[in-house]
Each structure stands twice: as C-alpha cells, then as structure tokens.
Specification:
single chain; 394 residues; alpha+beta; Elongation Factor Tu (Ef-tu), domain 3; 4 domains; six-stranded antiparallel barrel; four-stranded antiparallel sheet
Length: 394
C-alpha cells in the first residue's frame, strides 16, 4: 500500500511540473510575439514615414516644375531686304574678234604666238598663194592681149574714119569700126576689173589683224588645210565686257532698263556692279527665257571673255523680318524656330514652323511664320522641346 501511494504522489508532482513548464513556455512565446509585433510596427511606421516624405518631395518638385534652360534670345526686327535672284551668265567681250580666213588653202607660216600683243596690220598667218598667183598672172596676160586688140581696133577706126571723110568708105563701115573699138575698150575694162579682183583675193592669203589686242588660242598648225569656216585664232582687247543673262519668261514683266545687276563669285562677293542695258523683245523657244545684257567695266581684268559667272538681278528693296541661321532647324524639309513666350510670368519655348527665303549674310529672310517683336531663341535649341521653360542668358 505504501508503494502505491508514493507512486501516485510522484505522478501528481510530474504533471504539475509539466503544466508549469508549459505555462512558462507560453508566457515566453507571447512575450516574443509582442516584441516581434512591436518591431514590425516600428519598421512599417518608418517605411510609411519615408514614403510620405518622398511623396511630399515629389509633390513639391512637381509643384515647382522642371528647371529653366538658359538660352540666348533675340527680338525679331524689320530690316531692309533686297529682292534679288541669281542666274548663271556668260561674259562676252565687246572688243573680241574671231579670225577666220576668207580663202581656202594650206597654212604655210604662223607668225604669232598665243598671248602676243599685236597692233593693227600685224601679219598673223600665211596661206599658200601659189594657185592664186597663177590665176592673177593669167588674168594679167589676158588683159595685155586685150590691150593689143584695143590698139588694133583704134587703128582700124582711125583709118576707116579718114577714108569715110574722103568718101571712099561708107558710113556703115565707119559704124562697124566704132562698134569694134567700143567692144575692145569694154573688154579691156572687164579684164582689168578681174585682175584687180584676183589681186585683192591674193591679199587674203596673208591673214592680218584689223585691230590691236591679245592673240588667243591658235588651234591650227602649219600644213593644215583651212576653209572660210575655220577659226584661226581670236584677238581680245582688255576692257568692257557684257554679261548675257537669261531670265525665265515668268519674271520678264518685271525687267526694266537700268535695273541693278551684280556679278558675284561663288562666295557671294560682288566682283562688279552694272545695270541692265538691253532686254530682248523675243523669247528663246528652247529655254523659255529672255536675254538680258549688262555692261561690265573690267578695268582690273578680273574677268575673262566667255567666262561663266553668277549674275544677281536686284528686283527691288523691301522691309521684312530675318532670323539667324543658328536659330533655324529643319525636319523633313520643314523649317522650325523656337520662340520664347510669356506664360504665367515665365518664359516658355514654343516651336513654330517657318517659310524662309534667301539668305542675307548670316540670316534667313522670313516669308511666313513669325512677326516683328517675337523673341527668337538663338542658342541651346538642341536641348529644347515644345513647352520647355527657358531663362534669358546674358
């Protein structure tokens, strides 16, 4: 019995011990859970606070807007603009002569060189005159024979005239003698004219210069056979040139005598000033253009005969707006420019399309798109978009 009672007490004590240990473990677990929950709450509170601060900063930044871009601004003004158009022109000398032979034959001698300065009467070339000399000799012999015939006819007339006066010969014989004398005299005059003609023709075999000047290119050589259409050389006199300008027929009604014309180089520099001196009344049917001439005083010999140049015809002067080339951008063939406009007390860049004309110096002539007084942005346009805030840069 005693053994049974002791076993029951031990069992009770063991159960109480287990119960106490379970309570202690539960208490520790609840404490840990409360601590974890508090730590989690603190972390969540910190994250929420950070998110709120960031949202507040974003809202403040959005409220202030993007930063303004510093740019240079120029105000559009009206300036005098010349309405001018450039055309390709040809310069021709007013004192240039093309030397061509007046006879056919082989060249036997060339007495000048390209670039020689010559005076009137200078012998340029010699064409073989052998055949022509023979012709002249033949004509002179014929004239000498006719002079003998004329002398015989004169003697016959004198003899018959004396006999007729004495009543020996009839008046009919006298008339026939007079007619023969007249025919012989006429034939002698004709042969004399032919001799003179052939002698003049003989002079053409020696090619001479009619004017003073500079010998141009000589495309022929000794031994070449030339005809009356062969160009032997040219003789140019330094001095006045004429610009031959072909203006499209659409603009011909605007052409007027004394209208300014400028000869310019490839960079637009003016080489010579002139005015229209001739307007053709006809239209070139192949190019549908009108020939215009302008005299050029080439005192410094900067220009050459048959030189291609650019002729600028000035139609008139008007006032219009211009914008710097640096301010203009091009996209798909369309020109654009940024204009600074006041929006709520701040300057904002707005992109506007343009229609531009010719260039005047470093500016485009504006035909349509902006008006005088507009504030055009001329720097930093590569960083701009439509609606971007800007601030003038000093």
């Amino acid at each position: 019995m005693g053994t049974v009672g002791q076993s029951s007490d031990h069992m009770f004590w063991f159960q109480e011990k287990i119960t106490a240990m379970s309570r202690e473990a539960s208490a520790r677990c609840r404490h840990r859970m409360r601590f974890g929950a508090g730590l989690l709450s603190s972390l969540l509170l910190a994250l929420f606070s950070t998110a709120c601060n960031r949202a507040s900063s974003v809202k403040d930044a959005q409220a202030q807007g993007p930063p303004s871009i510093p740019v240079k601004i120029e105000t559009v003004q009206l300036v005098p603009i010349r309405d001018a158009t450039e055309y390709v022109a040809t310069l021709k000398s007013r004192d240039s002569a093309i030397i061509m032979p007046q006879v056919e034959g082989h060249i036997t001698e060339i007495r000048v060189h390209s670039g020689d300065r010559i005076s009137p009467g200078t012998v340029l070339m010699q064409i073989d005159p052998t055949k022509q000399l023979a012709t002249v000799n033949t004509q002179e012999n014929n004239r000498a024979a006719q002079e003998a015939n004329l002398k015989w006819a004169q003697q016959q007339y004198d003899r018959i005239s004396a006999l007729a006066a004495a009543g020996v010969d009839s008046k009919q014989d006298l008339d026939q003698a007079r007619t023969a004398l007249d025919n012989a005299r006429a034939q002698l005059q004709a042969l004399g004219a032919q001799v003179e003609e052939q002698q003049v023709q003989l002079h053409y075999y020696r090619v001479t210069a009619l004017t003073a000047g500079v010998v141009g290119d000589i495309p022929v050589r000794v031994g070449d056979r030339v005809t009356t259409s062969t160009i032997l050389t040219t003789i140019d006199q330094p001095g006045t040139l004429e610009a031959y300008v072909y203006v499209p027929v659409e603009r011909s009604p605007q052409l007027k005598i004394n209208m300014p014309v400028e000869i310019v180089d490839s960079e637009g520099k003016v080489l010579a000033d002139s005015r229209i001196s001739f307007i053709s009344p006809q239209v070139d049917d192949t190019t549908q253009s009108v020939l215009v001439k302008a005299r050029i005083a080439n005192n410094e010999d900067k220009l050459r005969n048959l030189q291609f140049v650019r002729a600028r015809v000035v139609w008139g002067v008007r006032h219009g707006p211009v914008v710097p080339v640096l301010a203009v951008s091009r996209l798909s063939g369309q020109y654009f420019v940024f204009v600074a406009e006041d929006q709520g007390g701040k300057l904002v860049a707005h992109q506007k399309p343009l229609r531009v004309g010719n260039m005047v110096g470093n500016d485009y002539v504006v035909l349509e798109g902006i008006n005088p007084g507009d504030k055009v942005i001329v720097s930093g346009i590569q960083y701009l978009v439509d609606g971007a805030p800007v601030v003038p840069q000093s």
